[in-house]
Design a protein that fits this description.
Strands 1-2-3-5-4 form a 5-stranded mixed barrel. Strands 8-7-6-9-10 form a 5-stranded antiparallel beta sheet. A 5-stranded mixed barrel has the order 11-12-13-15-14. It has 4 domains: about 60 residues, OB fold (Dihydrolipoamide Acetyltransferase, E2P) (Beta Barrel), CATH 2.40.50.140; about 70 residues, OB fold (Dihydrolipoamide Acetyltransferase, E2P) (Beta Barrel), CATH 2.40.50.140; about 80 residues, Nucleic acid-binding proteins (OB fold (Dihydrolipoamide Acetyltransferase, E2P), Beta Barrel); about 120 residues, Nucleic acid-binding proteins (OB fold (Dihydrolipoamide Acetyltransferase, E2P), Beta Barrel). Helix 6 runs antiparallel to helix 7. Helices cover about 20% and strands about 30% of the residues.
């Protein structure tokens, strides 16, 4: 028998065997065999089945398993895990309760979020929300007391304050003085400003700033723990220093000897007045405030007053701070320039006794011009030990010019006797008569002069 005919007979025998096996096992339908790619049969020859190898059975089973496990189960949907909001993220919730210190917000998580009640009110303490209101907030951390998220209202969503961060510039009102500093109300938030940070100058009495509305910079911000309020520390000095440095650069550009500038009196001392020229301070010595004698700068100037000054001296220091000497007096007309005509020898006038020295009494004839009555002239022939035996500061006195030295700015004076007043000036005579009626030391002196007239 030819080989091809043997193969055909073997195929038919194998098919008959498989059908008999199926009947015996009770199977009603035969599973479709996996068929490999067949070589095309020659014309007139039957096609031959080739059974799959063990490796091909395993590969098909593995592919079916992968397809089954990859497909989502329709009967049991898998729950999706929701990641809780992180610090800094914005959330939307609904107010569940409002307490005196802490309020609770439902944001859809297992635990309720908390928010400080003070953050829900305006600067006057009036609540901006009520239970049930929807609120947009920002996550700032976790609350140790409840374990839930801690929130604060998001800026621009009904809360006029907005979140605070280090470096923020805020408006605040000084409400009280406490140990080491002051309490400041930041539109409902309580902040602390150390006394050293209230100004770029020494603050002698912080109580004077209570009630003032000022600008501050946030230098420290810590969220409160549990039910505690946030810890906020602020500084005004930081702002003033930066502002002063910017102004100082512009002022230095026009600072030179002889320059006339406008400034503001920033502080007063016994020896002079400090003037803010715009980021730079200069000092007007008490002798340079006015041509008239000034006992203390406060007699002429007040803090905050605007004045015109002339730059007299600029001293560059190694520490970078300039020492600037100023004068107000140099911008006034010197009254001694007119003294030759106004205070010639023999002129009789009235003046006020300004101060007493052991050698005589100084009399102010006009602002900036003083003359001296020597003690020998006060006694009028009678020896006295001190001018206060016959005159007192503040008294008005009729005097006569005995000598004038314009270069040294000195005028010698003598009291006017009653007879001299009648001969020289009716006005001075009337002054002398009124003083005599007033009694007291000056009246006694006038009476003494009257009795000793030549």
């Amino acid at each position: 028998m030819a080989k091809d005919e043997q193969n055909a007979d073997f195929g038919r025998i194998l098919e008959d065997f498989e059908r008999d096996e199926d009947r015996r096992s009770g199977r009603q339908q035969k599973r479709a065999p996996l068929i490999r790619q067949q070589e095309p049969a020659e014309p007139g020859r039957p096609r031959e089945y080739q059974r799959p190898t063990e490796e091909e059975d395993f590969a098909a089973a593995l592919a079916a398993f992968d397809a089954e496990t990859a497909a989502p189960s329709r009967s049991k949907p898998q729950p999706q895990r929701v990641k809780p909001p992180q610090k800094g993220e914005s959330v939307t919730g609904r107010l569940l309760s409002i307490d005196l210190e802490t309020s609770f917000v439902d944001i859809g998580g297992k635990a309720e979020a908390v928010i400080s009640t003070v953050d829900l009110a305006d600067s006057d303490g009036v609540l901006l929300y009520k239970v049930g209101d929807e609120i947009q907030a920002q996550v700032v951390g976790r609350d140790e007391g409840t374990g839930g998220l801690r929130l604060r209202p998001a800026g621009g969503q009904g809360d006029p304050r907005g979140p605070l961060h280090v470096g923020d510039v805020v408006d605040g009102t000084v409400t009280a003085v406490n140990k080491g500093g002051v309490d400041v109300d930041l539109k409902g938030r309580r902040a602390f400003c150390p006394v050293s940070q209230l100004s770029d100058r020494f603050v002698e009495d912080a109580g004077e700033m209570v009630g003032q509305k000022l600008k501050f910079e946030v230098t420290r911000y810590e969220e409160g723990r549990g039910r505690s309020a946030a810890n906020i520390v602020i500084s005004r000095k930081a702002l003033l220093v930066r502002e002063k440095e910017a102004k100082a650069e512009a002022t230095r550009a026009r600072l030179e000897i002889g320059a006339v500038l406008t400034g503001t009196v920033s502080s007063l001392a016994d020896y002079g007045a400090f003037v803010d020229l715009g980021g730079l301070d200069g000092m007007v010595h008490v002798s340079e405030i006015s041509h008239q004698r000034v006992s203390h700068p406060k007699d002429i100037l007040t803090v905050g007053q605007q004045v015109q000054v002339k730059v007299e001296k600029i001293e560059r220091r190694r520490d970078g701070k300039d020492r600037i000497g100023l004068s107000m007096k140099s911008l006034e007309r010197d009254p001694w320039l007119d003294s030759m005509t106004k205070w010639a020898e023999g002129t009789v006038a009235e003046g006020q006794i300004r101060r007493l020295e052991s050698f005589g009494a100084f009399v102010e004839l006009e602002p900036g011009v003083e003359g001296l009555i020597h003690i020998s002239e006060l006694g009028s022939g009678r020896r006295i030990n001190h001018p206060r035996e016959v005159v007192q500061p503040g008294q008005t006195l009729a005097v006569k010019v005995l000598s004038l030295d314009v270069q040294k700015q000195r005028i010698g004076l003598a009291p006017v006797h009653d007879g001299e007043a009648q001969e020289n000036d009716p006005g001075v005579r009337e002054l002398l008569e009124n003083s005599q009626k007033a009694g007291g030391d000056f009246g006694a002196m006038a009476h003494f002069f009257k009795k000793t007239k030549p």
